[in-house]
Every structure is written in structure tokens, then in C-alpha cells.
Amino acid sequence: MQGLILQLTRAGFLLLLWLFVWAVLRTLRSDIYAASGIRPQPRPNRSSRASGLGLGSVRRGQKGAKYLVVTHGSLAGTRITLGAQPVLIGRADDSTLVLTDDYASTRHARLSQRGDDWYVEDLGSTNGTYLDRAKVTTAVRVPLGTPVRVGKTVIELRS
């Protein structure tokens, strides 16, 4: 009877060990390949056919950003109308843009308006905030159409 219990204990321990190894490999794989899933894809050509004007004309005619658009991630297609209030981004329920991303912190980043310009700042997140491909360390001005990456989510300011 004791031999059977010992064999079952060994088999259980071996199963737990393999589950742990599988979980570690799965986590490593998602970390390694995460960057390939969040790179912005080439933007479609915004020619005069689509808007009636060239992109340069549209940007010169508009002052400041009016919308925050999620371009990649689980919330792709989400559009938030910008006002005078800062936009808080993170996993917290009281954030303006609530992310369900494992790579986003509870309070990850903040977009705030200064005059006609919007600035992004990292709020001490674990994985950082990136403007285009540069890591944000202080409040940085966000030009229209420039991707801002928070975890696996990519957002842009649009007019």
C-alpha cells in the first residue's frame, strides 16, 4: 500500500513539474513574440480620394487633437473624444481608457493637454510607455498620428 502511495506521489510531483515548465515556456514565448504583435502596421495611403484633401492639408487646417484612437490591441477601433481633462490609461477601473492587458500597469500613463498640444507621461509603469519607438521618461509632446504604446495597446491622437 505504501508503495502505491509513493508512486502516485511521484507521478503527481512529475505532473506538477511539467505544468510549471509548460507555464514558464508559455510566458517566455509570449514575452519574446509580444513585440511582433504590437508593432504598428503600415498606415493606408490617405490620398485625396479618401478625404478630398491631401494629409498635409488636413493637418494644416486642423488645430490640436480631437480624438484618441486605439489602433492595435484588444480595444482596437475604440475612439475617445478628447476634452480638457487628462486621459488616464491603465488597468484601474477609474481610468479613462481601461486596458485588460497583462503588460499594462494599474496606473500606466497619462495624456494631458497643454495649450493645443498633448503630452504623454509614464506614471512609473513596470513595462514603460513608448512614443513611436522611444521610451518615455518625462512628459513628451505627442504629435498627431504618432503611435503611443502602452503594453500591447497602441494609441494615436487624431484630429
From TrEMBL:
Pfam families in alphabetical order: FHA
Glycoprotein among keywords: no
InterPro entries per the UniProt record, alphabetical: Cell_Proc_Reg/RNA_Proc, FHA_dom, SMAD_FHA_dom_sf
Coiled-coil residue windows: none
UniProt keyword terms in alphabetical order: Phosphoprotein
Keyword Phosphoprotein: yes
Domain FHA, first and last residues per copy: 87-136
Full protein name: Forkhead-associated protein
Provenance organism: Nocardia camponoti
